[in-house]
Design brief:
Strand content: 15-25%
Strand order of the largest sheet: 10-9-11-8-7-12-13
CATH superfamily of the largest domain: Aldehyde Dehydrogenase, Chain A, domain 1
Structural class: alpha/beta
Distance between the termini: 53 Å
Length: 427
Amino acid sequence: MTEPTAQRQAERDEVLAKARAAKQVAPTLATLSTPKKNETLLAAADTLESRAAEILEANQYDIDAGRAAGMAESLLDRLALSEDRISGIAGGLRQVAGLEDPVGEVLRGHTMDNGIAMRQVRVPLGVMGMVYEARPNVTVDAFGLALKSGNVALLRGSKSARTSNAKLVEILQDVLEAHDLPREAVQLLPCETHDSVQDLITARGLVDVVIPRGGANLINAVVENATVPAIETGTGNCHFYIDKDADLDMAITMLLNGKTRRVSVCNATETALIDANLPDADKLKVIRALQDAGVAVHGAVDKLEALGATDIVEATETDWSVEYLSMDIAVAEVEGVDGAIAHIARFSTGHTDAIASKNAFALRRFADRVDSAAVMLNASTAFTDGEVYGMGAEIGISTQKLHARGPMALPELTTTKWILEGEGQIR
């Protein structure tokens, strides 16, 4: 086996040292009072705004480096901060401060026949590793949600945002210190090599959970290689099915909203499924509505052109499973609601899938048989969002089935423990 280089060893040593420091301060964070958490979050929000000039200077360095490296403008936009965006990030912290603290919530309990009082309560997960891509706002979001839920944040952002992330973490650590809290409650991990991700996700005994947030490659790399428990915040190959009994104009409005509102988010509609029993003129109306909105339609050219459609991009097998995150959409005809369910079962990532119909049977069958974190009945896929759900800020959308599923807000960043209180009882 090849010996690691001095640089690679130093990087690994730094990750593990920071993980040990995080583990050491975790009990302090776990027992913080709600007023202390909120006071710190509000101070962090104010400080980010007052030190915006420092943040923007650091961010400009990353922008210039990214542009010089040929980074796409869409990615540069995700990376870029402004005074308005910083205010939005600060507003997110204030929102978290206003949310109910999940720690200590009693989920259930009773007194045993022998007199022992037992209760199940929410407690923090502990050390929360976060692996994410370009967006610097995630750095602050993760800190805020971790602090409010009593967790310690170990953050591994992307190399493209390292100067921005370093400045943001420095400011957050300054706020922690000013409030007599350990700076180690939030730490930024090195990002020189991809191996530092592996160091984090295999730090068993030091890291309690790791959460990836980004594209499919990043998520798969974390989930498939982690020895630490991982919560999969999945990609969104979201479907919108238009049933023969749909209100067509309403369906088109929902479809366009899901596709065009924000193309770069995981709840964007990526596939439109059209009931084969719809009149051809209605099918064509759906396709043209998409194209008129600037969306490139991918599908079976011969079938869609037979309807009168033009400028169709021939779909390959990957078009049905891809998360475009662009002004592209796959369109297919299916045989009724069962055909839609079968297509979704084959290609969906289990994020959000939707149906438009006025038929109660079709709606119920779709709701019962589509196995996704969110199922929309006569609503746009764009509604899968923790804030929209009334949960406040979210760390991501979980597409797995264990521990958390759907928007992950504060309660999903906790686990539980049982506390039994007796008076000397023995068994």
